[in-house]
Amino acid sequence: MSRTIITPSAEYMSRPFRDETDFWRVRRLLIDTLADTPVGWTWDIRRWDGWRFHRECSDITPEWSQQLHLWETVDGQLVGAAHPEDPGEVYLEIHPDFRADIEDDMFAWAEQNLAGDSLLTWVFDYDVTRQNLLRNRGYAPTDALMVVRHMRMSHREILVPRIAAPYVLRSTEDTMADCARVAAVLNAGFNRTSHTAAEFHTFATESPSYRADLNLVAEAPDGSFAALVGLTIDTESGRAIIEPVCTHPDHRRHGLAHTLIQEGMRRVQALGAVDITVETGGLEAANKLYDDFGFSGVYRGVAWRKTFE
């Protein structure tokens, strides 16, 4: 249902997500706000594209209109979007110039439409404004930690790495055989069973942010993938993203992820990347790895939760 929101400074319309055009408008919002916001303010384009295309079917279904809501100015400018990633949580994509007018309304919509017994949202330590808003709405911080690392890289020399024998460093292809190998290393590396060849094939062939030359693997002698590192670059802003990073448990302690990350960073730098981010969580080994690469920026936050009777 569409609604009108009248604030002391302006009037806004709130409405459900509609169609393909809305998908690209939200994506455009993520790109347009990047230069004027801190790291992690909105989703990066890799995550937005992945939410749609990293599945076996990328069709926009009726559930999108139930799960995704938009806020626009009266002249049609998109200034905010609220949506989940998993059930019972909400993420806000919001233009910083309009947060004072619409942010509280966005959480009110999410509580009515996305919550079950509770609603969870992630907040960075730097965002005291959102912390205060959530506290006033009855949320409390949890122990669940998120960490995003950041590095400026435009003038950093990145050498061509050498991969440990007997592995071969290469880019993936969009064949079903390679997609099956990608699914296998993702499942093994993250201790999952959910990834499929069809899922990754959709992402590799339909996602606008996917580039095969930035999807790097360490191939074992038997042809399986021992490690995988994917990178994305937004060529407009020069922001690069590392996601995912995984190594098969049978092939760890050979420096494979380190080698693939270094090669990926070298490639995105050649494409014009000026900075790069990666989400590490609180994993000590992962953060040590990015310390070694020179990721000096550390952006921490926690999940906040509101419980409903």
Describe this structure in words.
This protein is of the alpha+beta class and 309 residues long. It contains nine helices and 13 strands. Helices cover 32% and strands 29% of the residues. A hairpin with a 7-residue loop joins strand 4 and strand 5. It is globular and about 65 Å long.
Write the layout of secondary structure elements.
Elements: E1 3-6, E2 11-16, H1 20-32, H2 45-53, H3 63-67, E3 69-73, E4 78-83, E5 91-94, H4 99-113, E6 118-124, H5 128-136, E7 140-152, E8 168-171, H6 176-189, H7 197-206, E9 215-219, E10 225-234, E11 239-247, H8 256-270, E12 275-279, H9 284-293, E13 297-307
Parallel strand pairs: 11-12
Antiparallel strand pairs: 1-2, 2-3, 3-4, 4-5, 6-13, 7-12, 7-13, 8-9, 9-10, 10-11
Radius of gyration: 20 Å
In whole angstroms, the N-to-C terminal distance is 25 Å
CATH topology grouping of the largest domain = Aminopeptidase
Give the number of DSSP strands. Answer: 13
Low-pLDDT stretches: none
- What is the overall silhouette? globular
Helix content: 25-40%
Q: What is the CATH C-level name of the largest domain? A: Alpha Beta
CATH architecture of the largest domain: 3-Layer(aba) Sandwich
Summarize the structure.
This protein has 309 residues and is of the alpha+beta class. It contains 9 helices and 13 strands. Helix 6 (176-189) crosses helix 7 (197-206).
